[in-house]
Design brief:
Radius of gyration: 23 Å
Number of strands: 8
Distance between the termini: 88 Å
Helix content: 40-55%
Strand content: 5-15%
Length: 265
């Protein structure tokens, strides 16, 4: 006996919109909607692979914009960035409610579909805001700046606009190691590219010294009597420490790294 229908799609926003189209066209409620063809489902589950069709995706997008509103579609876009395995099904429930009640959906905060959607979106925005706070850039030869992160959710598209606006005339790359994706700012526009074949120049000669100075500053302003490890982990979760300069140990045998260059006669 079949356990019901499960949808499987490619994990993209257009693919998610096509799952919504499929559910409406067939008038069915999938038991689950999973992203990625490598996902293992129950042995008795009937799986339907949903092809990504830009025309169908566009029809769903236009329907959400017209019947629910642009704010609702922005929520759908952001939900598509979530790594939560329930994200697609949560989105489907949210859109179905939106098609029923229209723009008034934002007033139904206690409705399970809206409440669950908002909770999902908070997880994505929380991680994006934390990376905006904690990303540390290294200066590479040639004037490029480089930062790495390993986010749970696909937040690179939310992080890039902030740094593109802030850096302005400084080219930079932010590397999402989880998805092997790089956000590249060339001082005109930013774009996302695969990092599979990315080759970077080495750090500048001064980069190690700058990092050591920053660690020294971080330690010097600390008040030992007020150090609270639990509170620090609350504001700076340990998952971010790997790429935060001030949280790295001092390099052994590098005590001369802070020496200023001798003045030229």
């Amino acid at each position: 006996m079949s356990a019901g229908i499960s949808y499987r799609y490619d994990g993209s926003l257009d693919g998610l919109l096509c799952c919504i189209f499929e559910a409406y066209e067939r008038k069915e409620e999938p038991l689950s909607i999973v992203a990625g063809h490598a996902v293992q489902l129950a042995l008795d589950a009937h799986v339907r692979d949903i092809a990504t069709d830009p025309e169908r995706a566009s029809r769903v997008q236009k329907g959400i914009l017209a019947r629910i509103g642009p704010e609702a579609f922005a929520c759908v876009q952001q939900a598509a960035l979530s790594a939560d395995p329930r994200a697609a099904q949560i989105t489907l429930a949210y859109v179905k409610l939106g098609f029923s009640v229209g723009p008034r959906i934002d007033q139904r905060l206690a409705d399970p579909a809206v409440y669950t959607m908002n909770k999902l979106l908070r997880q994505v925005t929380w991680e994006a805001h934390r990376y905006i706070q904690f990303l540390r850039f290294n200066e590479l030869e040639g004037g490029m700046y480089f930062a790495e992160m390993e986010p749970e959710h696909d937040v690179l598209v939310l992080v890039m606009p902030h740094f593109a606006d802030r850096f302005g005339q400084q080219p930079f790359i932010i590397h999402d190691r989880t998805r092997r994706l790089a956000g590249v700012w060339d001082m005109r526009a930013w774009t996302l590219v695969s990092s599979e074949t990315m080759r970077l120049p080495p750090p500048t000669a001064d980069e190690a010294r700058y990092q050591a100075l920053w660690r020294m500053f971080y330690k010097s302003i600390a008040i030992k009597q007020r150090i609270n490890p639990n509170l620090r982990r609350q504001f700076m979760p340990k998952k971010f420490w790997r790429y935060i300069t001030e949280m790295q140990p001092e390099l052994p045998g590098k005590s001369d790294i802070l020496r200023l260059p001798a003045k030229q006669p």
